[in-house]
């Protein structure tokens, strides 16, 4: 079974369209998204329409849950006061511009999706099996990976939230962070599409990095009234 995972799209329609086309051209059986539909770029409603139109199922990220329920805070973590201020402005902008239809879509997204593939149990969630806003970076100690794996009955765990893709194998389990379509933070500004092929004997992961018209998104960020800060970060992949 070959699937494509679209992580953290964050209102970047241009990146999503190219990521989707790439996934289709890879002849995958199914395409999933990992939540965090809006924020940082302006096309939250258009992204929701695209996902519905193309039948892309997915899960609820922290940003989706907080936008949909009009929370005070997006549930994100900030490294410094400037980032915090920018993140707050993005969150307020997104809550204000998300349509009723979008909020209802975000509200209904499930916390996780599970399925079987070639005898393996696959589980998708946004950040960790129990919390949608905990950052599961590659350099977490092995103990952390084992703790997370103990919480669920799964052989392959697929998640995002950090916007930094990786794969880790431990105790016959596969941990895949699918990276981010619309806001990569690993220094590579291209959209990330995680291709995962599951066969009886193996799980093969391929992180495709797909170029797209970044200028189109950065211009839209500035024109929308979102801080230009997010346009600069997008260009840098940070
Ligand atoms: Fe995110």
Short summary:
The chain has 238 residues and is an alpha/beta fold.
Descriptive overview:
The protein has a five-stranded mixed beta sheet, covered by helices on one side. It is an alpha/beta fold. The protein has eight helices and ten strands. 35% of the residues lie in helices and 22% in strands. The radius of gyration is 17 Å and the shape is globular.
Topology (elements, then pairings):
Blueprint: E1 2-6, H1 13-25, E2 30-33, H2 44-53, E3 57-58, H3 62-68, H4 81-97, H5 100-108, E4 112-117, E5 120-125, H6 142-150, E6 156-159, E7 166-170, E8 173-177, E9 191-198, E10 203-210, H7 214-224, H8 229-236
Parallel strand pairs: 1-2, 2-3, 5-6, 6-8
Antiparallel strand pairs: 1-9, 4-5, 7-8, 9-10
Helix pairs in contact: 2-5, 3-5, 7-8
- Largest sheet features: 5 strands, mixed
- Encode the helix/strand succession as letters: EHEHEHHHEEHEEEEEHH
- What is the spatial order of strands in the main beta sheet? 3-2-1-9-10
Please tell me how large the radius of gyration is: 17 Å
* Tally of contiguous helical segments: 8
| Number of E strands | 10
**Proportion in helices:** 25-40%
Mean pLDDT over all positions: 97
Kindly report how far apart the N and C termini lie.
32 Å
List ligands, each type once.
fe (ii) ion
Poorly predicted regions? none
- Determine the strand fraction and express it as a percent band: 15-25%
What coarse outline follows from CA principal-axis ratios?
A: globular
- Structural class by secondary-structure content: alpha/beta
């Amino acid at each position: 079974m070959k699937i494509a995972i679209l992580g953290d799209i964050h209102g970047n329609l241009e990146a999503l369209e190219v990521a989707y086309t790439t996934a289709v051209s890879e002849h995958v059986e199914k395409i999933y998204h990992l939540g965090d539909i809006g924020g940082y770029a302006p096309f939250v409603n258009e992204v929701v329409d695209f996902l519905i139109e193309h039948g892309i199922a997915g899960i609820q990220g922290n940003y989706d849950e907080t936008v949909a329920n009009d929370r005070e805070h997006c549930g994100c973590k900030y490294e410094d006061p400037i980032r915090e201020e920018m993140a707050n402005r993005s969150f307020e902008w997104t809550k204000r511009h998300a349509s009723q239809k979008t909020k209802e879509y975000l509200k209904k997204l499930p916390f996780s999706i599970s399925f079987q593939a070639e005898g393996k149990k696959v589980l998708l969630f946004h950040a960790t099996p129990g919390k949608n806003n905990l950052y599961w970076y590659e350099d977490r100690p092995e103990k952390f990976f084992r703790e997370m794996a103990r919480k669920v009955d799964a052989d392959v765990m697929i998640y995002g939230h950090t916007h930094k893709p990786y794969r880790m194998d431990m105790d016959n389990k596969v941990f895949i962070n699918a990276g981010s379509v619309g806001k990569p933070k690993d220094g590579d500004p291209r959209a990330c599409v995680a291709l995962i092929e599951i066969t009886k004997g193996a799980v093969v992961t391929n992180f495709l990095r797909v170029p797209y018209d970044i200028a189109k998104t950065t211009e839209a960020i500035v024109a929308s009234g979102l801080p230009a800060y997010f346009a600069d970060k997008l260009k840098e992949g940070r």
